[in-house]
Amino acid sequence: MHDYPPPGAFPVATVSDAMDRFGVADGIRPLWPGAVLSGPAFTVWTRPGDNKGLHTAFETIRRGEVLVVNGGGDVTRALIGELVVQKAKALEIGGIVLDGAARDVVELAGLGVPVFARAVTPAGPWKTGPYRINGPIAVGGVPVGPGDWVIGDDDGVAVVPAGEVDDVIAGTRRLLEGETERRAANQRLVPRG
């Protein structure tokens, strides 16, 4: 098990740069500005528009894990809303990433659990299954396995395979040092003419 950096410690864009610009989940955005997450993935694969698997996941998910859900990219039914996120907050999970939709955006922001999703809709979910828990999935075109590092900020979500976490953290630190030097050089620029 890794010591994952705390939420907000590394920009998603720089983490992606450290992975040769791979690993970014397409179309998955934070539901409010300033939402950040970082932690190991706990995965759910569910039938589009159905959240029975999410409720089952809450029976075994651990503090700090990020619930990552392949909902088939469906945007017609919200997989989560205020009541589900209240449960997530009580369990102190690291956040929720949905390749699907959410609802109750104002209430979710007030709860403070970082939620990233493909869309927002007021339409509620089905609760019949089927689903798969803690196996390999894909979210926004990116493979995600249990324990992979999931990181999110205002730019979106990136996924780092568990076996690459230490190398990507080291590479991200090097890139951030270089960016600091470039910022300093930019401050010294003088207009011509």
UniProtKB/TrEMBL annotation:
User: According to the UniProt entry, what is the EC number of this protein?
Assistant: 4.1.1.112, 4.1.3.17
Which family, according to the similarity comment? Belongs to the class II aldolase/RraA-like family.
Q: How does this protein assemble?
A: Homotrimer.
The cofactors named for this UniProt entry are: a divalent metal cation
Q: What is this protein called?
A: Putative 4-hydroxy-4-methyl-2-oxoglutarate aldolase
Per its record, the protein catalyses: oxaloacetate + H(+) = pyruvate + CO2; 4-hydroxy-4-methyl-2-oxoglutarate = 2 pyruvate
The free-text function statement in the UniProt record for this protein reads: Catalyzes the aldol cleavage of 4-hydroxy-4-methyl-2-oxoglutarate (HMG) into 2 molecules of pyruvate. Also contains a secondary oxaloacetate (OAA) decarboxylase activity due to the common pyruvate enolate transition state formed following C-C bond cleavage in the retro-aldol and decarboxylation reactions.
Question: Could you read off the lineage of the organism from its UniProt record?
Answer: Bacteria, Bacillati, Actinomycetota, Actinomycetes, Kitasatosporales
Q: Name one Pfam family in it.
A: RraA-like
